[in-house]
Specification:
The chain is an alpha/beta fold. It contains 21 helices and 19 strands. It has two domains: about 190 residues, Ribosomal Protein S5, domain 2 (2-Layer Sandwich); about 240 residues, 3-Layer(aba) Sandwich (Rossmann fold).
């Protein structure tokens, strides 16, 4: 049979559309052509496949080979098409039977010896094959859910996360051909979900002092609110931020699969991180593409890798302003759409933003030590590097002062992360039962419906909004924070004490450039 059709998968954002590899062995001068919008890595597969076939003891047809990757308008990248192309050549040249090809899909990069190397995106492909669970898609056509995906053995841990037993693990091309011939079946990858270990996360009990910052951290965890910590260097801002994931409720299976699929697409899958809330802390030199995603073949950025977790931006004013402003849309919508001339990709980006900054370039403005030597214009430029619209989207703002030495050396009775996490879980359950989402995700209609406020508290809110000149967004965000504070207390109507505490967290930066700079 001079024509063979083998099925495989491409990657387009978080989706994994089906690709048909059509191989034709025809008459004419010896040639090897790959068509169907292949990128450089796919065009180079011709040399890898030829060497792998010969080194595995197969015959390479000395004829005109045409490989079509359909659909032709879908860009194809990476070496994952090596295995299906090799299988297609062997089937079209009559070296292996074709009866079982319709029941299988193949992905994998070939070495020159025929060994299968791990690839990225295996979990996203398996989720698409099983019906789109975890990646927002659906199965591809009738019978797609009955097929199995042949993957490299190095991707076994990743493939085990997919529901059912949809994957077969192969070490090399010879093992794949032995399975197709019926002489040695490939091993099925058993479905297995590891148990996450929350005790491996940094514990809040290790942090001495900082009662106000710990309270703000608890509120942020309970309502999924964004948080900005301002204070001098070494005060403990980063130490507090890395403990936030340990306070958050565990991911459910659907959320954990989606997070794992995103890491798989980015080539950063690690089975040890299964079920854990992501924590991403990009350096302030990161570009806008690194932060929100992009590239000629769009890949997820830090905001998507932190999906359902925490995105920590340390030294916030040091980030380029246009880079920070690129976060404004995903913080509101919970997703990022990357558009290119030939394609478009959408990645989830429901993150909890935590940021830290110094009050001035030297970091000591407003400090009691009086060591700041920055001028008022320098402080103003430093603080204005963070745009007002971005600051307006941050719910909680707290000052983190250095802990006195006697508190560092003394015994601290701080609650551990497990205790705070249990209290956060109770508040989260109240929100899920009442409105089906975290308080930070309430829209304006949800705020009006679920943030029932006592009359005295409402008068306090209106007076604060008038005096402080809040925007409509700030008004609603203060109400959401107050709703979370009331949920932590187990109280339904928002009282004056809840709202007063929420207003305190809506403070401006620690130092006003119009005030005299400490000498």
């Amino acid at each position: 049979m001079p024509l063979a059709i083998v099925r495989t998968r491409a990657l387009s954002g978080l989706q994994a559309p089906e690709v048909r590899v059509e191989v034709h062995v025809g008459n004419g001068l010896p040639a090897f052509h790959i068509v169907g919008l292949p990128q450089a890595a796919v065009r180079e597969s011709a040399d890898r496949v030829r060497a792998a076939l010969l080194n595995c003891g197969f015959d390479f047809p000395n004829r005109r080979l045409t490989v079509n990757l359909a659909p032709a308008d879908l860009p194809k990248d990476s070496g994952r098409f090596d295995l299906p192309i090799a299988v297609g050549i062997l089937a079209a040249s009559g070296q292996i039977p074709v009866e079982d090809l319709d029941a299988l899909e193949f992905v994998g990069e070939l070495s020159l010896t025929g060994e299968l190397r791990p690839i990225r995106g295996v979990l996203a492909m398996l989720l698409a094959l099983c019906g789109g669970r975890g990646n927002g898609g659906r199965g591809d056509g009738a019978g797609a859910g009955d097929r199995r995906l042949v993957v490299p053995s190095g991707c076994r841990d990743e493939a085990a996360l997919a529901p059912g037993r949809a994957a077969l693990a192969a070490t090399d091309l010879v093992a794949v051909c032995a399975h197709l011939r019926g002489t040695q079946p490939l091993e099925r990858v058993e479905h297995h979900l590891p148990d996450p270990d929350p005790t491996s996360l940094p514990d809040l009990a290790d942090v001495r002092g900082h009662a106000v910052a710990k309270r703000a951290l608890t509120i942020a965890a309970a309502g999924r609110h964004s948080l900005l910590m301002t204070g001098p260097p070494g005060a403990g801002k980063s130490m507090l931020a890395v403990r936030l994931p340990g306070l958050l409720p565990p991911l459910d299976t659907e959320q954990a699969l989606q997070c794992a699929a995103i890491r798989s697409i980015a080539g950063r899958f690690d089975p040890a991180h299964w079920g854990a809330r992501p924590f991403r802390s990009p350096h302030h030199t990161a570009s806008a593409v690194a932060l929100v995603g992009g590239g000629s073949g769009p890949r997820p950025g830090e905001v998507s890798l932190a999906h359902q977790g925490v995105l920590f931006l340390d030294e916030l004013p040091e980030f380029p302003r246009h880079t920070l402003d690129a976060l404004r849309e995903p913080l509101e919508s919970g997703e990022i759409t990357i558009s290119r001339a030939a394609r478009q990709a959408t990645f989830p980006a429901r993150v909890q933003l935590v940021a830290a900054m110094n009050p001035c370039p030297c970091g000591h403005a407003g400090a009691s030590t009086g060591r700041c030597r920055c001028s008022a214009p320098q402080i103003l430029r430093y603080q204005q590097s963070v745009s007002g619209p971005l600051l307006d989207r941050i719910d909680l703002r707290v000052q983190v002062e250095p802990v006195p030495l006697h508190e560092l050396a003394g015994r601290d009775l701080t609650e551990c992360s497990a205790t705070v996490r249990a209290r956060v879980a109770q508040a989260t359950q109240r929100q899920m039962s009442r409105q089906g989402c975290a308080n930070a995700l309430l829209d304006s209609r949800g705020v009006e419906r679920h943030c029932r406020t006592e009359p005295d508290a409402l008068r306090l809110l209106h007076e604060a909004a008038r005096r402080l000149g809040w925007s409509g967004r700030a008004y609603h965000r203060v109400l959401r924070v107050a709703r979370t504070i009331a949920d932590l207390a187990g109280i339904e109507p928002i009282g004056t004490a809840h709202l007063a505490e929420a207003i305190q967290y809506r403070q401006t930066l620690v130092h006003n450039p119009r005030d005299p700079v400490p000498a």
